[in-house]
Amino acid sequence: MRIAAVQMVSSTDPAHNLARALDLIAQAARQGAELVGLPENFAFMGRADHDKLPLAEAEGEGPLQQALAGAAREHGVWLLGGSLPLRTDDPQRVTNTSLVFDPQGRQCARYDKIHLFRYEEHGPDGHKFYDEGVVLRAGERPVALDVQPRQGAPLRLGLSICYDLRFPELYRALMRPACDLIAVPSAFTHTTGQAHWEVLLRARAIENQCYVMAPAQGGRHENGRRTFGHTILIDPWGEVLARVEEGEGVAVAEIDRGLIDQVRHRLPALAHRRL
User: Per its UniProt record, what CDD domains does this chain match (predicted)?
Assistant: First the structure.
């Protein structure tokens, strides 16, 4: 199965971002991708967290979800919608949610980001503080699903978002039963990305002996934020198969089920777990 991870530099204009996302999905489909993943916050990177509240949709309704379903149906691909805000029963809180659509445009999975990023620093430039939990409501459960390629047996896809990457226990929970592929749509900061992005992604691939796809935001945004990018696809041995460093682009690679089986047979670490 060929998979594609999309890199974007999303702005404060949802219509523009959606148009760019749809174009990049089409590019991935033209390259033969059967599964396409968008980055976290693909439709909107606001100037403040509360800016996303008016954009939030009810599950199953709204222009963003309709557009994603339509793109999956038009191109006949499985589509991971990065993340977008969905409404909760509190008008001041939303979820940061990944939705997966099948090639018929049907929503078949929803994952709400469990781990919410919080950062605080006292330095020469003063006090810096950021807390996603001010606006976001955390999810509560891991989510995985079976994705059916055009040929062959289904692949097990585990879902996560950005800051989740730092919590290996989530990925261990996703390995019962074992996933063949883990998705990590992200908008990593440039500072933390330089230090930790690739090493954490490769660790998740190696320890879980599966493929990892990490669609990312990558560049200088209209709101002044700089994201790290380096959208990447990694195999179960931890080898990097494809990447986009900065700016818009699409990383494409093949999933080889035989390699998954070979790695797990040669070094059966998953079978050796005691906890």
Answer: nit
pLDDT score for 122 = 66
Tell me what the mean pLDDT of segment 4-26 comes to: 98
**Segment 206-251, tens digit of pLDDT:** 999 999 999 999 999 999 999 999 999 999 999 999 999 999 999 9
Torsion angles phi and psi, residue 156, rounded to 5:
-90, 120
**In this structure, what are the phi and psi dihedrals at residue 160, rounded to the nearest 5 degrees?**
-155, 170
Task: List Cβ neighbours of 42 (8 Å cut-off, separation of 6 or more).
Answer: 6, 8, 10, 17, 21, 81, 82, 83, 84, 185
Terminal alpha carbon distance of the chain = 32
Note whether 103 and 72 are within 8 A (CB).
yes
AA identity, residue 269: A
Q: CA nearest 87: which of 56, 124, 133?
A: 56
Q: What residues act catalytically?
A: 40, 113, 162
User: Is 2-272 a domain of CATH 3.40.50.300?
Assistant: no
Measured from the Cβ of residue 227, the count of other Cβ atoms closer than 10 Å reads: 26
